[in-house]
Structures are given as C-alpha cells and as structure tokens.
Write a structure and sequence with these properties.
There is one protein chain. By secondary structure, this protein is α/β, with parallel strands linked by helices. It is built from 16 helices and 14 strands. The protein has a domain of 280 residues: Rossmann fold (3-Layer(aba) Sandwich), CATH 3.40.50.1820. Helix 11 packs across helix 13, helix 12 packs antiparallel against helix 16 and helix 13 packs across helix 16. The radius of gyration is 26 Å and the shape is globular.
C-alpha cells in the first residue's frame, strides 16, 4: 500500500511539473505571438505572419492613418484617425480612394470609398531597428492605391526594411480649389489634399513606426510616376521638413510646371469654378460642393498646383532654386517611357523648335536606329529621361548625394518584341512581384534581386552600393554618371548630344520658374 501511495505522489508531482512547464512555456511564447499585435497611438492592430521560415515578415493592412475625409471633412486637410477599443484586425487592405475603373495591373485597386485613408506595413519578423521605406503609388494623381497586388511589400521587407504603402486622395477629391472653399478657411491649407494626405501618413510613420520595428530617424520615400512627382514636391515643401531622410523618384520627370491656386492665365480656382458651373452650380456654398455625388467628381482629372503653403514649387523647381531637402536621392527612368503616350516626333519638334534637326540627327547616330524610332527616343529623353538626370545634376551640384539610373529589363515573354521597359515596368522587379500576365526567367530574377538590394541598401545607408554589386557611381559633374539597371548592369555617361538635349528639355521650365 505504501508503495502504491508513493507512486501516486510521484505521478501527482510529475503532473504539477508538467503543468508548471506548460504555463511557463506559454508565457515564454507570448512575446513571439505579441509581435503580430502592435499598439499604435489610435489603437491595437493584429497582423499576419507570411513568408518562408528564413525570411518571415509580418503584414499589417488597412490601418487608418487619418480620419475618413467624408461629409464635412471632404476637401479639408486630413485629421488624426479616431481611436478604437479592442484589437483591430489588420489582415485586409482598406478601401481605395474613388477613381475611374482601369484594367492594368497597377490599377487593380479593389473596393473604393471616400473613407480611404489607410496604409499598410510589412516588417521582418525578427526583432530589430530597420530602415523605413514609404511608397507613393503612381497613376497620374487620378488612379492607383496602396493595396494593388503589384505593391505587396513582403519581398522588400524580407531584405531588412519596414515597408509602408499608403492611399491618398485622387482626382478632384484630392486636388480641388474653389472660391467657396477659400472663403470657408482663407488662412488654411487649401486644395492639395492628396499631398496633405501623404504628409499625414509620414507624420503617422514618425509617431508609430518604431512600434513596428522601424527607425523613425531613417525614413526613405520612394514613388513612381505621379508618386515620383510627389517625391520631388515633398522635397521642396516646408510642410514635410524632417519627415523623411532619403528619397527615390522613379519616372517622375522634373520639368513639370504647376499652375497657381489663383492668378495667371490659368489657375486652380478658375478650373474649380468651371467644373462646378458645368454641374449647374453658379455660385455654390461649401456645403453644396460637399453634396456633389462622387460619381460626378471622379469624371474630371485634376493635379497638384501651387498653393503657397503645402505645395510651394513645381517638381524639379526646388532643385534649381537650391531649396530642396539636403538628403540622398535616387532618380531615374525606363527605356520605353513612350508607352505612356504623347512622346512622338511631333512632341520633340514642338519642344525643340529649330534645334530639332541637329538633335534628331545626333540621336540617329547615337542609337543606330531608324529616324522614326530615334525621334521617339529623343522625345522620351525630353519628357522623362533627361529632366530626371537634370534634377540629379542640380542636387549633386549643391553638395548632396545623387544616384541616377536607366532601367532596361523586360520579362522573358516580351523580350523579343518589346521596345524597352514600359513606364512603371520596373516596379514588378523592385517589389519582386511578377505581374500575372508575365513570365520570368533567371535573368529577370537576377534583376529583381539586384534592384531590391540597391534600394534597401540605399534606405539603410544613403548609398546603394554594397559587396558583390556592380558599382553605382554617384552623380558628379556633366557628362552625368548613371547606372544602367539590367541583366548586364553597367555604369555609363550621357553622350554630348544627350547633354544638349537635356539643356533643351529644361529650358522652358527654367524660364517659367525664373519669372517673378
């Protein structure tokens, strides 16, 4: 009997030890599980673990960074997001901002609503203090969203960065001036609500990103097309001072001239009045404006303009006036920017006037192409390639780090027939998200790794160069250095005819910017 009692006591002791071990084990596991929940200044969000075991990331999708800009907040500066109780599931993208429907890969935006000021965060699962990369999508300031599958951030985050994508208001919901809105708040921030949203998202990053493992003192913004134009605008905006520390402008030109909010032959308030008059509103109140159906608003295109407080200069202008942020910059373009449309021989003739024959002949000799194809190359240079490089020149001339690039890689299924990399075609390589309609081979995988590594190293240190990578020369003095990013990456310099075309490409913008 005594032996039996001893065995029972031993069994009870063993069970207590097992229970104790289970409780302790559970408490030890809790911090790892807690990595998928983060408490922001508005409330707690729960994310999702994804990726391979060696490169796991945690994603947090659909986080509100500002209050819904609906009702009385339509056409007003963004306000702080309201707080919530409990845990908010952050496993699905938030609504895209209202826009016309498109079918391209970059326009697969999902559900739309005016309640659209959301952002998404991807971070490495491994604890650390990582550089932050905030992406501003393209779409002509009219289309696009942070939740487009092309911009899924796991691939970049797995390299060692916290990646953020964000929505901002588009079209006339994002860029709209009208005397009625000015009368309502004459001393306020007017018109450029989409840019204000971008700044609000960067303010959210500054307040919250450390809780996701990001370094708020090491933030890079990078944008493509309209997003690249926004990068240049933000680099010249006093309202964005101190919110980011590195930048990349991808296919954003640099010679755009924005209209003013008022004054001049064409201005934003004038365009706003024309829009409302076409809707039958001759002298509307602000309340009447906010009652216009969204379906009517998104029919009209709209763009940023000079408001004097948020957008103070055109993209590129700050660099020529030495008023840009003193931060490292990557800037460049693609080999088939004419896919965007409008870059033709006629366009080149209009820009160059009497200089066209000489520069066209120079491009025929430089490229070895037929005259028609060389004229398109010249037009692409005038519209995108050379203004971007001119911005790099100006940035470097004032003592800042600048790295210029020319992207020239095409998926294997298009390689035999494509004229080059389409506008926006570098994005699938940068994010590592092959477009569904494309096929990749080993070459494409190599370029994707190469580009992602360059961008993450730049986000980390301000220099894209690193061990094993083809050296990317910094911009110094003309003829400008740049890197050709392709399956055979190499450094190059502008040819003399390209330097002449670059000066011609910027001439009209420089003259306009210099006017009183």
């Amino acid at each position: 009997m005594q032996k039996c009692m001893d065995q029972i006591r031993q069994w009870e002791m063993m069970m207590k030890r097992m229970l104790f071990a289970f409780v302790i084990g559970a408490s030890l596991v809790t911090p790892a599980l807690a990595q998928t929940s983060v408490t922001t200044d508005a409330g707690t969000v729960a994310g999702t673990v994804a990726g391979t075991e060696d490169a796991q990331v945690i994603s947090f999708k659909g986080i509100p960074y500002a209050a819904p800009p609906v009702g009385p907040l339509r056409w007003k500066a963004p306000e702080r997001a309201p707080s919530w109780n409990g845990v908010r599931e952050a496993k699905a993208y938030g609504n895209a901002c209202p826009q016309p429907v498109r079918t391209e890969a970059w326009a697969q935006v999902g559900a739309q609503s005016e309640d659209c000021l959301f952002l998404n965060v991807w971070r490495p699962k491994k604890p650390g203090k990582y550089p932050v990369m905030v992406f501003l999508h393209g779409g002509g300031f009219v289309f696009g969203a942070a939740g487009v599958p092309l911009y899924e951030g796991s691939g970049l985050a797995a390299r060692g960065a916290v990646v953020v994508t964000m929505n901002y208001r588009l079209g006339r919901l994002g860029y709209f001036a009208h005397p009625a809105l000015t009368r309502e708040d004459p001393d306020g921030k007017l018109g450029n609500f989409g840019v204000m949203d971008q700044i609000a998202s960067l303010e959210w990053v500054k307040r919250n990103i450390a809780r996701f493992g990001g370094d708020p003192g090491n933030v890079m913004i990078f944008g493509e097309s309209a997003g690249a134009g926004a990068v240049q605008i933000l680099m010249g905006s006093p309202a964005a001072t101190g919110l980011f520390h590195k930048a990349a402008s991808q296919s954003g030109s640099g010679s755009t001239v924005l209209a003013p909010i008022r004054g001049g032959a064409i201005n934003a308030e004038m365009l706003g009045q024309k829009f409302t008059e076409e809707l039958g509103l001759k002298d509307p109140t602000a309340e009447q404006l906010r009652a216009i159906p969204v379906a009517e608003i998104i029919k009209a295109r709209a763009f940023p303009f000079i408001d004097g407080k948020v957008v103070t200069m055109s993209p590129g202008e700050a660099f020529y006036k030495n008023k840009q942020m003193r931060i490292p910059l990557i800037i460049g373009s693609n080999s088939n920017e004419s896919s965007l449309g409008g870059m033709t021989e006629a366009t080149a003739k209009m820009v160059l006037g009497s200089a066209f024959p000489e520069l066209h002949a120079g491009y025929v000799a430089l490229t070895g192409k037929a005259p028609d194809a060389a004229a398109v190359d010249l037009a692409e240079g005038l519209g995108f390639v050379l203004p971007s490089i001119a911005v790099a020149d100006q940035h470097a001339a004032t003592g800042n780090k600048a790295f210029a690039y020319f992207f020239d890689q095409v998926p294997v299924d298009q390689r035999a027939t494509a004229a080059g990399t389409d506008h926006g075609g570098e994005l699938e390589y940068l994010f590592g998200n092959k477009a569904a309609e494309h096929r990749w081979d080993a070459e494409d995988l190599k370029v994707s790794k190469q580009m992602g590594d360059y961008w993450v190293r730049f986000a980390t240190t301000g220099d894209p160069n690193g061990k094993g990578a083809v050296r990317w020369p910094a911009v110094t003095t003309p003829p400008t250095n740049y890197l050709v990013i392709s399956a055979k990456p190499h450094a190059a310099r502008l040819a003399p005819v390209e330097e002449k075309a670059k000066a011609a490409a910027m001439a009209a913008a420089i003259k306009t910017w210099a006017a009183p």
